């Protein structure tokens, strides 16, 4: 997925495909989430003790763990889109984030917000004064992160900004440790749960691309959500190592944070690029 303005354009194009009723529903869902985050951040800054514990927690995390923290926050935000964009089905991966991690993520994003808008503000203050500086800045500016001053008609723009920022921060340190995209196994819930079983019709259904053997007529085959058929034994072994269809590379849910972000973003990007290219499938 592209960065910066290109990413914003693609996401905006994807959102523009939603009918007005769904846009309103999504806007109110996002507004409620941002308002809850604002209240949480307000509570964090209003309590010196809670602020100190959260800051110490951030200090204890290496850069890669901070990246993973933002990635989990990004995933929980992306999950708000699943009722509106493919894949529509809920992911087995828990999209929730613990209160401690949410506090840490919101505080980290607040630090990043300040560094972006006023890089010298924290540098000019000793760490002992950061609580006072952050509190003053937050309550004076009511950051776009909070959404508290944003009505439902404007919240989608705020949402796009947060997606782009979180993706950039999560990828900066590389929540995969700087490695290129790797295969991740499908979620155990997908593998264990009964996938659709269909009987191969008259004339067979070609070959199973995993083992290269014919799909014999009358044999029970496994059908993935994309409609491709495979021998049960073949596809179950396949899904324990990777979460993509062997034919079309459609991603199935996984228990990996980065894998789930890729899966949800790819669906959004596919819709957005199709819209930007005149509704032609990409």
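Sequence proposed for the structure above (282 residues):
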């Amino acid at each position: 997925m592209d960065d910066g303005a290109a990413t914003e354009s693609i996401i905006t194009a994807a959102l523009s495909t939603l009918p007005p009723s769904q846009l309103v529903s999504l806007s109110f869902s996002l507004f409620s989430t941002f308002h809850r985050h604002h209240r949480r951040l307000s509570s964090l800054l209003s309590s010196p003790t809670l602020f100190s514990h959260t800051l110490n927690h951030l200090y204890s995390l290496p850069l890669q763990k901070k990246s993973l923290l933002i990635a989990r926050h990004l995933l929980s935000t992306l999950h708000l889109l699943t009722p509106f964009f493919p894949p529509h089905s809920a992911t087995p991966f828990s999209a929730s984030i613990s209160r401690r991690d949410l506090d840490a993520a919101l505080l980290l994003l607040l630090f990043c917000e300040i560094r972006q808008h006023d890089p010298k503000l924290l540098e000019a203050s000793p760490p002992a004064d950061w609580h006072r500086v952050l509190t003053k800045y937050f309550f004076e500016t009511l950051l776009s992160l909070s959404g508290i001053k944003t009505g439902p008609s404007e919240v989608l723009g705020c949402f796009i900004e947060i997606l782009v920022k979180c993706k950039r921060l999560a990828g900066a340190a590389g929540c995969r440790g700087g490695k290129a995209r790797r295969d991740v196994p499908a979620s155990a819930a997908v593998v264990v749960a009964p996938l659709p079983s269909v009987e191969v019709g008259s004339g067979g259904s070609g070959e199973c691309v995993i083992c290269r053997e014919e799909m014999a007529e009358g044999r029970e085959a496994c059908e993935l959500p994309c409609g491709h058929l495979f021998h049960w034994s073949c596809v179950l072994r396949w899904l324990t190592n990777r979460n993509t269809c062997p034919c079309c590379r459609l991603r199935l849910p996984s228990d990996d944070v980065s894998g789930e972000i890729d899966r949800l973003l790819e669906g959004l990007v596919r819709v957005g690029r199709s819209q930007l290219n005149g509704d032609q499938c990409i």
